[in-house]
Amino acid sequence: MTNFTILNRFSTAFRDYNSHLKLVLICTTVSGGGVLGYNAVVGSSEDAVVAATDKKKVVVLGTGWAATNFMKNLNNPKYDVQVVSPRNYFAFTPLLPSVTCGTVEARSIVEPVRNIFPKKNVQVQFSEAECIKIDAENKKVYCRSISKNNLNGKEEFAVDYDILIISVGANVNTFNTPGVVENCHFLKEVEDAEKIRRTVIDCFERASLPDISEEERKRILHFAIVGGGPTGVEFAAALHDFVNGDLVKLYPGIKDLVKITLLEAGNHILSMFDKRITAFAEDKFQREGIDVKTGSMVVKVTDKEICTKELKNGGQITSIPYGMAVWSTGIGTRPFIKDFMAQIGQGNKRALLTDEWLRVEGFNDVYALGDCATINQRKVMEDIAAIFKKADKNNSGTLTVKEFQEVMNDICERYPQVELYLKNKQMSNIADLLNEDNIDVKKQLNIEELKTALSKVDSQMKFLPATAQVASQQGTYLAKCFNRMEDCEENPEGPLRFRGEGRHRFKPFRYKHLGQFAPLGGEKTAAQLPGDWVSIGHSSQWLWYSVYASKQVSWRTRALVVTDWTRRFVFGRDSSRI
Q: How is residue 301 annotated by DSSP?
């Protein structure tokens, strides 16, 4: 009993330590008590104290990738933060396909937000509620509690803000296809993955009943996945591994009746990847018996059939019986975001438009990050007159190459498509750009020649993908801007204001693509990394394991995920219906 009490006290004390000190304690224990230096500063009376009246109220909507990375990196004590979200946890969404098949448990990829957000310098409050309306004119957001047992009887409340950060993600885009909402599973949330997992087991259990006909068994065991993007492909691969690696041993009598079909409206699956990866994935799926139907547009879904228009066969309508359907075809805007967009004149856009500093267009105190927003990159040709005027310091009406070169760095910083154009054309400097259009670099340029030189760069403008990688980088960027707000007010670090005076306070957000993975099952993964580097096979699978383990938000989830992977290697996937 005494030993148990001592162990319990040690466990409680261990959990109360911050994460860095936990790592030190673990390292000290494993190393056999070797000497390890560590300075743990819990608090200091010399820390800056900011009066409550001087603090700005920041309201953050959402607890996804953008919001979580913003909160993790924010350390400016001049802000009081209130987070509002219908879920009180952060979910590592790239592992949702693994949850659907029991490779990883749902609780292993979630971390309570109250474990993530505590800061000694920043006061953070969390409200478990959903936003239903944004009133930007009066700086209020209206929210509704999702609690079923509201103690004070108030289901709706308003929150005032000085700065609003919208990072609520997006809904699944059904393209208004009849029957999708009623009959298909989605794969956006942890609850979706758990529901899919139960449905897969249900299908096998129903097909095992003695009074089911052979034809009905085939229908029940037909799993249809709509969408050939990364999520749909990864789920199809994970399901194939689950069925052939675990379920066929438990249901030997019906193993030959299982069928997996992947429906894609385009000509290829994984169209955003390198062609080598696309070809390998399609060939691998074909060899393993996964039926890939490209050029198949879903037009209707009933409770037992999916109707598709075969674009390669003149639009012929085909009906496909199924037992479970998963819809994974893109993202759509949340209803209250649509209402807000209509208020601010963006009703015809697919997402909230922001500037390059992530501010919603028309507002200096409203930011939008992640899947709910898109950056409206300004075109060079829209500002060509202002650029010319700013570069022409002596107002001569012409530019020397030297004058143009002096503002070129600011142009590349303000308009990233310029730098991308130079890179794609393998140009090293402004002279190469001018020579492309046969402009003599030895003479002075007039505005028409400048227009000619820069006329093609806007063709390199691209929308950022709706990925966790983009959202996390945006959250980190915005937090760093908030941390340096006062310093950059006095010493701006951004590019020249071509349509104004001085410089921008911060450098605009610049997305850095770090690569992407496509797990293809059978312990094989396709990796596409910067520099046109492509790797497919077992080595890429281990790279996937290491990257996804390192990207977990806490040591707790990191340990749980690695433990789940190890358990799966040793014991296989769990097929219990819980």
A: E
Exposure string of 282-317, with b = 16+ CB inside 10 Å and e = fewer, is bebbeebebebbbbbbbbbbeeebbbbbeeeeeeee
The answer to whether 385 touches 397, Cβ cutoff 8 Å, is no
Q: Which residue has the higher pLDDT, 283 or 460?
A: 283
pLDDT in the model for residue 29:
36
Domain map (residue ranges) of the chain: 53-172+331-377+463-512, 185-329+514-571, 380-460
Task: Indicate if the pLDDT at residue 65 is higher than 70.
Answer: yes
User: Of 62, 161, 82, nearest to 123 (Cα)?
Assistant: 82
The reply to whether domains 185-329+514-571 and 380-460 share a CATH topology is: no
Report which of 379, 392, 399 is spatially closest to residue 449, judged by C-alpha positions: 399
Determine whether domain 380-460 maps to CATH 1.10.238: yes
Helix (H) or strand (E) run with residue 89 in it? strand 89-91
Residue 45 pLDDT exceeds 60: no
pLDDT exceeding 70 applies to what percent of the chain?
A: 88
Burial 19-41 (b: 16+ CB within 10 A, else e): eeeeebeeeeeeeeeeeeeeeee
Full-model pTM: 0.88
Q: Which amino acid is at 366?
A: V
Distance, CA of 277 to CA of 186 (rounded, Å): 25
**Beta-bridge partners for 320:** 306
Burial status of residue 440 (CB atoms within 10 A of its CB: 0-12, 13-18, 19 or more): exposed
Angle at 308 between CA 306 and CA 310, to 5 degrees: 155
Greater pLDDT, 9 or 322: 322
Domain 185-329+514-571 listed as CATH 3.50.50.100: yes
Distance, C-alpha 83 to centroid of its chain: 19
Beta strands at 79-85 and 56-61: parallel, antiparallel or unpaired: parallel
Distance CA 53, CA 352 (A): 32
Q: How far apart are CA 314 and CA 309, in angstroms?
A: 9
Q: Which of 448, 439, 451, 447 is nearest to 381 (CA)?
A: 451
Class of domain 53-172+331-377+463-512: alpha beta
pLDDT band at 16 (very low <50, low <70, confident <90, very high): low
How far is residue 225's CA from residue 520's CA, in Å, rounded to a whole number? 15
Cα–Cα distance between 16 and 449 in angstroms, integer?
Answer: 66
Q: Which residues pair with 294 in a beta bridge?
A: 264
What is the distance between the alpha carbons of residues 330 and 172, in angstroms, rounded to a whole number? 6
Confidence of residue 152 (pLDDT cuts 50, 70, 90): low
Q: In Å, how far are 407, 412, 478 from 502, measured between CA atoms?
A: 13, 17, 22
